[in-house]
Design brief:
This protein has 461 residues and is α+β, with helices and mostly antiparallel strands. The protein has twelve helices and nine strands. It is 61% helix and 14% strand. The two termini are 48 Å apart. Keywords: Kinase, Membrane, Phosphoprotein, Transferase, Transmembrane, Transmembrane helix, Two-component regulatory system.
Length: 461
C-alpha cells in the first residue's frame, strides 16, 4: 500500500518551482496580451471618436455656409493625421450602407508571429473588431464613423508586445530550473551526511554523530539524531553490562554445579563401582551365580561416570587461559569427533594469531563454539560441520557451516542459540543464523575488538 514511486527531493522541489514559475510566466504573458488588446481597442475607439467629430464639423460647415456643393462625408483630411498601417476608416449611412471607406495597406512583416500564436490570439481576443461612433448633428443621426484594424496587423502587434516576452520566459524557465536544482543540491548536500549516519546506526555503529549544519531545519535533525544515537549507545551499553553480569552469574552457577556433581555424585559413583568390585570378589568365592549382576552394576556405574565426565566437561570447560584458545577449540572438536564415532565429521581452521586475545573473549568464543556444536549435533542431523575462526585487524569472525536440516524450529529458538546471542550481545558483536547457500545452516559471529576492553569484559566469562 505504501510502495509508491520515489522521486529525488531535489527533482521534486525543482519540478514544483518550475510549475509555479510556469504559472507565473503564463499569468504575466496573459496580462501583457490583455493589456495589448485593450490598448488596441482604446486606440481605435479614440480614432473613431475623432473621425465622428470631424464628420460632424464637416456637415456643420456645409450647413453654416449654405453651400449647394457638399462633399460630405470626406475622410481624406482626417486620414492624413490618424492613418496607420492596416487601419480602415469608413462612414456608414443610416441605412447601413458604406458610403465611403478608406484603408491603408498592411506592411509585409519581417518577423511574422508563429501560426500557433496567431490561432491562439484570434480565438481568444477576436482581433479586427470594429469600433463605431455615431455622427449626430442637431439631434439627427447622419450615420456612423467606423474604424477597424486588419487582424493580421493587430496580431503582429500583440506578438511584438507580448509574444517576445513569452519567448524570453520560455527560454528562461529551463535556465531557472537548472539554477534552482543546483541551489537545492548545494543546500541539501548535508542530507547525504544524514543518510550516511543513519546507515552507520543501522549497521550497529552507535558512535556516529552529525556535524553542525547552517540550515536551522537540518540543525534540528542533527540535534535529534545525535541525542538518539547517544541514548541508544547508552542503552545498549547498559544492556551489555547487564548481560555480562548475567553470563558471569550463569558461569559461576555452572562451576558450582560442576563442583557439586564432581564431589558428591562422582564420589558416589566411584564408591558404587568399588563396592561392585568387592561384591564380585566375594561372589566368586561364595556365590558364583551373582557374578553377572556384579559386573552389570560395575558397567552401569562406569557408564554413569562417563556421562558425568561429559556433563562436567560441558559445564566447566578446560582453562582456556592456560591452554590457549586454539588448543582448547581443537580439543573440543576432537572430543566431538570421538563421540560421534564417524557419523558426523567436525573440522576447524584458524586464520590469524590468537595468543594476544584477552582471556575473557577467548572464554566467550569457546562457549559460543561449544553451544553451536551442541546445536548442530542435537537438531541439525548433519554429517559435516566446518568451523573457521579468523582474526582481523579490528574484529574476530567465526563461521560455522553444516549440511544438516536448516529449517528445524528447535535449532533457531532453543536455549543454545539464545545463550549465544546473549554472549555476542555482551561483546557488542553481531550474530546471524540462516540457511546456507548449498543447504544446511550457516552461523556467523563477528566480535569487534575496539569495544572488547578489559573494563568492558571483566565480568563477561
Amino acid at each position: 500500500m505504501w510502495n509508491r514511486e520515489r522521486f529525488d527531493l531535489k527533482v521534486r522541489l525543482t519540478l514544483r518551482v518550475a510549475a509555479i514559475s510556469a504559472a507565473c510566466f503564463a499569468a504575466i504573458s496573459a496580462y501583457f496580451l490583455v493589456t495589448t488588446d485593450r490598448a488596441a481597442h482604446a486606440r481605435i475607439d479614440g480614432i473613431a471618436a475623432i473621425v465622428a467629430k470631424t464628420l460632424e464639423l464637416q456637415q456643420g460647415k456645409v450647413l453654416w455656409t449654405a453651400s449647394p456643393r457638399s462633399d460630405f462625408p470626406n475622410l481624406d483630411p482626417v486620414s492624413a493625421y490618424v492613418m496607420t498601417p492596416g487601419l480602415c476608416l469608413a462612414f456608414r449611412g443610416p441605412g447601413g450602407d458604406m458610403l465611403q471607406r478608406f484603408c491603408s495597406g498592411a506592411p509585409v512583416a519581417e518577423d511574422p508571429p508563429p501560426q500557433i500564436f496567431t490561432a491562439f490570439y484570434r480565438g481568444l481576443f477576436d482581433p479586427g473588431r470594429e469600433a463605431a461612433r455615431p455622427v449626430i448633428l442637431r439631434g439627427t443621426k447622419l450615420g456612423d464613423a467606423v474604424v477597424s484594424v486588419d487582424p493580421a496587423v493587430q496580431t503582429a502587434e500583440a506578438w511584438h508586445e507580448a509574444g517576445r516576452l513569452m519567448l524570453a520566459l520560455t527560454i528562461a524557465l529551463p535556465l531557472l530550473c537548472v539554477l534552482v536544482y543546483a541551489a537545492l543540491a548545494r543546500a541539501l548536500r548535508p542530507t547525504r551526511m544524514i543518510r550516511s549516519g543513519l546507515e552507520q546506526i543501522a549497521a550497529g555503529d552507535l558512535t556516529a554523530r552529525l556535524p553542525p549544519f547552517d540550515l536551522a531545519e537540518l540543525s534540528a535533525v542533527r540535534d535529534v539524531f545525535n541525542h538518539l544515537a547517544e541514548s541508544l549507545d547508552t542503552a545498549l551499553a547498559e544492556r551489555a553490562e547487564l548481560t555480562r553480569k548475567l553470563i558471569a552469574l550463569q558461569d559461576e552457577e555452572r562451576r558450582h554445579l560442576a563442583r557439586e556433581l564432581h564431589d558428591e555424585f562422582g564420589q558416589s559413583l566411584a564408591a558404587i563401582r568399588a563396592l561392585a568390585s568387592s561384591a564380585r570378589q566375594t561372589a566368586a568365592q561364595d556365590c558364583p551365580s551373582l557374578l553377572g549382576e556384579c559386573d552389570g552394576i560395575a558397567r552401569t556405574a562406569t557408564g554413569m561416570m562417563e556421562t558425568l565426565r561429559g556433563a562436567l566437561f560441558r559445564l566447566r570447560p578446560p582453562d582456556v587461559e592456560e591452554l590457549g584458545l586454539v588448543a582448547s577449540l581443537e580439543g573440543l572438536v576432537a572430543g566431538w569427533n570421538g563421540r560421534s564415532r564417524g557419523e558426523t565429521r567436525y573440522t576447524i581452521r584458524f586464520d590469524g594469531t590468537f595468543e594476544t586475545l584477552p582471556a575473557t573473549i577467548s572464554a566467550n568464543i569457546y562457549r559460543i563454539v561449544q553451544e553451536a556444536l551442541t546445536n548442530a549435533a542435537k537438531h541439525a542431523g548433519a554429517t559435516r560441520v566446518n568451523l573457521e575462526l579468523a582474526m582481523h585487524a579490528d574484529e574476530i569472525a567465526l563461521a560455522i557451516d553444516d549440511d544438516g536440516r536448516s529449517h528445524d524450529p528447535a535449532a533457531k529458538s532453543g536455549m543454545g542459540l539464545l545463550g549465544m546471542r546473549e554472549r555476542v550481545a555482551a561483546l557488542r558483536g553481531r550474530l546471524s543464523f540462516e540457511a546456507g547457500p548449498n543447504g544446511g545452516s550457516a552461523l556467523r559471529v563477528v566480535i569487534p575488538l575496539a569495544t572488547a576492553t578489559p573494563h568492558a569484559l571483566e565480568h563477561a566469562a
